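[SOLVED] Need 3D model of a two-part complex

Original post:
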Amino acid sequence: MRMNETEKELVEMVLSGRSEAFEPLVTPYRQPLLAVAYRLTRDWEEAKEVAQEALLRAFKYLGRYDTSRSFRNWLFQIAANEARDRLRKRRREADAAVEAGRESIRNQGPESGRRAREFRSDIDNCLSVLSAREREVFVLRDLEDLNIKETAGILGISSVSVRVNLSSARRKVRDVILAKYPHLEEGR
Amino acid sequence: MRCRQAKKAVPLLAGGDLSPRKAQKILAHIEGCRACRLDLEGYRSALGRVKAAAREEGLRDWSDPEWKGLLARIITEKSAERSPAPRLRPRWAMASGLAAVVLLAVLTLVFRNSIFRPEGTAPAAGPEVVSVTMVSQETGLQVVWFLNKYFEWKGDNK
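Solution:
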């Protein structure tokens, strides 16, 4: 998906100082950007922050944008980078919290954990078993329906790496789904 | 083709991510291999289920005021970056500059009445005593100097 002429003109207008052209440039991606951010973070508040940051950076660094590329994918790339940084930070904080409260979690027993898992959606259950890279690849390729090349471009990795991560992500997702719905194994 | 090779390619085949040639090879194997066929069906069902769940998830959107506010903020922040507020000089620099101006004015007054007066001429009518007040902007301390017309110090804080 390459940039269309209207977008190119809007980018040039913003770069020449007409900031008001930024709104028509990004409005078509208003919802898709938020959706990608949500699927990567699985938290609406965080998704909004990620999308906001992506828009802010897009405006700030529009001069560095290569107009031969898709503007949407460039926006998604910024959002994916931001989401990755936040997830990394969140994981570090969670690790520290688990370490600190290991005793209290142990006291709650396995029942509370099982109950929490039951209330999570299928998507949450699947994404929770994926590594950060697998999750990004799976979200962009399978949930956002981008192709392998676009996914690679957004994540700044090779197509081979996308295929490797996609394979292992789909394997893990299948295992989670089949564990919950065993009848699907026979294709019913 | 063996099952081991097919099993490696099945996850990509299930999502339609293999080249037509490679897909054809795997499908040829799968036709005659029940285990691999079930494997492929399992992947397709699982993927279908997750994709359907993603479609049904009901993704939210920004409210219009939220979106407009966000864009306005972004544009304002960026514009502020483009024209940064003028940097204020440090206080001490301003105070010293002011003191220098005051001192220069006083010296001009004093010397006009003494050095540049021609020999034998009567002194011009003017103040016999000049006072200079310096005020610190930071502490509020005032220092007053009294000088006679020959620029001789007469004392301070009188």
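Edit: Chain A touches chain B at residues 19-20, 22-23, 26-27, 30-31, 34-35, 38-39, 44, 48, 52, 55-56, 59-60, 121-123, 126, 141-143, 148, 163, 166-168, 170-171, 173-174, 176-178, 181, 184-187 (CB under 8 Å).
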